[in-house]
Amino acid sequence: MPVIQDRYGRTFRTLRVSLLNHCNLGCVYCVAGDDAVGKANNAAAKEHAAAKEHTASGIDLNTLKTKTAHGKHTALSVPDLLTIIERLHGQLRLGTIRLTGGEPLLYTGLVELIAGIRSIGIPDIKLTTNGFLLERLATPMKDAGMSSINVSLDAIEEEVFFRMSQRRGVERIIRGIDAARQAGLSVKINTVVMRGMNDSQILPLLDFAFSRDLRVRYLEVMAMGHLYETADRYLFSQKDILSVIASRYHFTPLGRTRSATANYWQTDDGHSFGIIANESQPFCGDCDRLRLDSGGNIYGCLSSNHPIPLGSEETEMEWSEKLQKALLQKQALRFTGSDLSMLHIGG
Ligand code: SAM
What we know:
By secondary structure, this protein is an alpha/beta fold. The protein is built from eleven helices and twelve strands. The chain is 35% helix and 17% strand. S-adenosylmethionine (SAM) binds at residues 23, 29-30, 100-101, 103, 128-130, 152, 190, 192, 219, 221-222, 224, 227, 342-343, 347.
């Protein structure tokens, strides 16, 4: 089997799996305008349905739907996902898998899937969630083998949270965060900062995180989906974020570990925070991430809008060639933007 590596020495060690391409929030960076409101309303109804399904033990209601990266809602079944993940692990010796979406907690076979991934032997199983359904699922996920989670929280003030996500429920997310920590999961908070939208929340979120000894990571907004051509307008850069934090705290850099997404700093009283500076300090040079979308397509880079479908009948050699092709999608220097929303490709 050929070694899967590009001319910069990069390979795939982390797999991000988008379990489904719909969500129970309508965040402004994922979904455009009126569409966001409609999607959030629909999503609230779906969440209600999913909550019922989660409690119906042993019933997996997932079905393999149309294989499109853009259009309809898609979700692969647990056995199909496990087959793909096991084959990819066999070829790549993955170190980490991150489950995402869409909103991964809406995926009804989630706990079974985590247990299955654990038995495949991938050392680190992580997940990114908006936290709406976390309170109930934290302990089952931990028991099934999950090690850590990132909770997306773009505001502490309810009105700002609503402006960002088209839903209310900050308290509910905080209860989820507390339940996750109590269950023994390692928790980080992710906040996308958008100029004029939620930059007022940088310090309140930091205070919240420090009061619980949590790490918050601020993300520069990326030119994706409907923001492909307008993200600049909302960019609140790493430099801007640091200058807001410097108005209250003195801090020193901790740096960034290889293949990580965030730069970290430590305050004088020992708390730390991070910034994922996709735009102002890109980290493509040692990126080791491979993405699998909810239709069974792989992508080597968020900048790519060219899904590579994996066929279940294909040989190891054919998959290896596709992985090499995905690796070629990686940018050498910086993220160049994509009209594919993270809702589809997985964040
Ligand atoms: N629903 C889950 C959640 O809210 O965390 C997982 C999927 S969401 C797409 C994953 C991450 O992508 C979130 O932290 C979200 O904030 C981030 N994201 C989505 N679009 C983005 C953009 N245009 N720029 C920066 N971050 C973005």
